[in-house]
Amino acid sequence: MVETLQHAGRRVFSPFEDAFDAAFGPRLNPFYHLGALSFFFFWVVLASGVYLYIFFETSIDGAYRSVENLTHVQWYAGGIARSLHRYASDAMVIVVLLHLLREFTLDRYRGVRWYAWITGVILLWLLYASGIGGYWLVWDRLAQYIAVVTSEWLDWLPLFGESIARNFLNSTTVNDRFFSLLSFIHVSVPLFLLLGSWIHILRISRARTNPPRPLVIGALLALVLLAALRPALSQGPANLDTVVSTVSLDWFYLAAYPLIDIWSRGAVWAVLAGGTLLLLLLPWLPRRREQPAAVVDLSNCNGCGRCFADCPYSAVVLRPRSDGLPFETEAVVDASLCTACGICVGACPTATPFRRLAELIPGIDMPRLTVRALRNSTAAAAAPLTGTDRVIVFGCHGGPDLARLNATGVAAVALPCVAALPPSFIDFVISRRHADGVLLAGCKAGDCYQRLGIEWTEQRLQGRRDPYLRARVPRERVATCWAGPRDATGLAREVAAFRARLRELGPYRRDGETPPPSPNPEVGDVAYRVG
Amino acid sequence: MSLIAWDEKFSVGVASVDHEHRELIGLVNDAHDRLMRPGAKAAVPDFLGEIYARISAHFALEEKLMRVEHYDRYDEHKADHERLLDDIRDIMDDYEDDRNFDENRFAQRLRTWFTEHFRTHDARLHGHLG
Q1: Phi and psi for B11 in degrees, rounded to 5?
Q2: Quick one: angle between helices A424-431 and A371-382, nearest 10?
Q3: CATH (domain of B19)
Q4: A301 neighbors B20 (Cβ within 8 angstroms)
Q5: Measured between CB atoms, does A472 come within 8 Å of chain B?
Q6: Beta-bridge partners for A140
Q7: What interface predicted TM-score (ipTM) does this complex get?
Q8: In this structure, how many other beta carbons lie within 10 angstroms of the beta carbon of residue A74?
């Protein structure tokens, strides 16, 4: 059931993502930065809100007037700020809802990721409370409508004893203090939203809260343009002695309001509370069984911390040494956070296929696909290859379908994530002549299923992140293809082009024998004591 | 006879680093002993692979300590580590490819490699960390 919905969702998302890939390039595709974009829009709302607050009068008579002044008299600043405040809030709803749907369709909401999902669902309520609260402050006819409907809706709950609608919302009782209260709420709820957003990303490491700069500039320009072309306007002053009959709604925030009119208040409560409850329970309907978590082997771990530095989920931590060896720390895996992506293994300096003296057990390993098994499957996959254009493709689960690559001369090895491949495997394959070239095939650039796999892989290949791919490995024999899951043809094309390049290169040869280092007389003279 | 013997002047004053240096010297000596016995061709690459893994891990730990201590010549030392790892991989491949293989020269290369690392690089780090 869940899988059917996810597949259907992916079919809806895919054409849009592909279109944006074509337009923006995968690294700047906004679909791959939805969470970061919601942070960005929050900052825009905050900044414009601070400006508006300077001029806003928190009184029953002053509220509408001051907003009108902002909009019309200082249209060039206050008016733009008001429109930015409004449109960035709308944009936030859009990206947040897309973020929620997308994570659902990608199955990134259950298993160890339940925490981000649950906190995210709670954030939705804070987001809506922030936005709707803002509409009250304008104190126009829309505000009046929202005020009345919201109060009536809240009155349905037997919480307040007395009716808010009756006590506050008539022309004789609504007062300035009420406006102070409203603006206090409109400042404090968004602060809770911010706090909640921080809690939301607490359990992942290096959360991306800033979208790429071109995306920021583009989004800001679009907002300013929209603000200039379609400034946000008030809909006439509120008058509590009349009943608002027609207003135009901001559907991003107020879509439920017509329902409160049409259905009973209780029914809307039931739908919203039930919907929220369903969302909160979703990670366990049914829960996802993660692959077994990474395991640490202390006899191979010196606490160097590379796995800790690279884990995208903060699942690896360094703790004081427990086995008496004279190291300060050791890696410890929190299984409740581990998605079994294997990126830690790709970072471990002992996870090298050159080890043959003892059984190949690295400091950290994946029980489902150990480094030893990976070396064996690499060698086995390579064995039948012939020619001078033999390629081993290491592919991830989020990448193109490797089964379709079964051409002669190409062998495919599947990994949970490309960054689970220790770079010394590439050195191993080429220098031991298991193949003439290595191609890494993964998710769409910018949309790594395991968050940081592509970034870490590229940095390791470029010698910018440990462990480096050795400088001695000929780079023309290493290729990457970030084609994503739908582009098997793109991968096949890349592989064919890569093989053509390899044929031109001919078989791998080292650049002559490295001359032995000239014996250093100083070193030779060092006297060694036994001890 | 051991190829390299532990010398207190190799000590960098950090228990973990010294411990690994001792382990590495032990491993290199084992490799050397094996080299001098019959059937070395098959056995030595196993040692070399293990030495490479241990040294990689050892450098990783040293680099972490240097970063923690904000060692001023981190980049230089790190570049040396990378070069030394490339060198040892060259030594490994030379052995595997059996080009002009000469046991004594090979032993000398290994020894030079280690003592150079200890003497030139860790000595200064010693002063810094100790």
Answers
A1: -60, 135
A2: 30
A3: 1.20.120.50
A4: no
A5: yes
A6: A237
A7: 0.91
A8: 14
Q: Looking at the DSSP assignment, which residues form a beta bridge with residue A68?
A: none
Q: Is the pLDDT of residue A528 over 80?
A: no
Q: What value, to the nearest 5°, has the Cα angle with vertex A456 and ends B72 and A103?
A: 135
**pLDDT tier at A58 (50, 70, 90 boundaries)?**
confident
Contact A468 B82 (CB under 8 A): yes
CA distance A377 to A415: 11
Structure-token match 């608002």, residue found: A244
What pLDDT score does A520 carry? Answer: 35
* A265, A322: one domain: no
Q: For testing the chain A interface, which of B89, B103, B108 should be mutated: the one with the most A CBs within 10 Å?
A: B89
Residue A70: partners with Cβ closer than 8 Å, 6 or more residues away: A52, A55, A56, A78, A79, A81, A82
User: B50, A432: Cβ pair inside 8 Å?
Assistant: no
Is residue B24 in a domain? yes
Angle between helical axes of B103-116 and B15-35 (0-180°, round to 10): 170
Per-residue pLDDT tens over the stretch B20-77: 988 988 888 888 888 788 877 777 788 889 989 999 999 999 999 999 989 888 998 8
Amino acid of residue A39: F
Pair A449, A360 in one domain: yes
Distance CA A136, CA A56 (A): 13
Assess if residue B91 is contained within a domain: yes
Q: Tell me which chain A residues have a C-beta less than 8 angstroms from the C-beta of B112.
A: 517, 519-520, 523
The pTM (predicted TM-score) of the whole model is: 0.90
The residues pairing with A395 across neighbouring beta strands, listed in sequence order, are A414, A441
| pLDDT tens-place string over residues B7-32 | 777 777 888 988 998 898 888 888 88
- The 3-class SS string of B59-93 reads HHHHHHHHHHCCCCCHHHHHHHHHHHHHHHHHHHH
In a domain, A485, yes or no: yes
State the residue range of the domain holding B44: 14-129
Per-residue pLDDT of A338-375, as tens digits, reads 999 999 999 999 999 999 877 899 999 999 999 999 99
Tell me which residue range forms the domain holding A136. 2-17+25-284
Q: Using the beta-carbon criterion (under 8 Å), do B50 and A514 form an inter-chain contact?
A: no
Mean pLDDT of all residues in A55-74: 92
Question: Quick check: A327 contacting B, CB < 8 Å?
Answer: yes
**What count of other Cβ atoms lies within 10 Å of the Cβ of residue A504?**
10
The per-residue DSSP string of A92-120 comes to: HHHHHHHHHHHHHHTT-SSGGGHHHHHHH
Interface test with B, best of A296, A528, A529 (most B CBs within 10 A): A528
d(CA B99, CA B97) in angstroms, rounded, equals 6
Task: Give the Cα separation of A479 and A418 in Å (integer).
Answer: 12
Task: Outline where A282-327 has alpha helix (H).
Answer: 306-310
A432 close to B (CB below 8 A): yes
The pLDDT tens digits for A118-156 are 999 999 999 999 999 999 999 999 999 998 899 889 888
More confident residue, A262 or A310: A310
CA distance A126 to A149: 19
Q: Kindly provide the residue ranges of all beta strands, DSSP E only, lying in B1-130, ordered along the sequence.
A: none
Alpha-carbon span B2 to B6, nearest angstrom:
10
Show which of residues 117-146 on chain A sit within 8 Å of chain B, judged by CB atoms.
none
Residue of A nearest to B64 (CA): A304
pLDDT at A168 over 80: no
* Cβ distance of A326 and B64 shorter than 8 Å: no
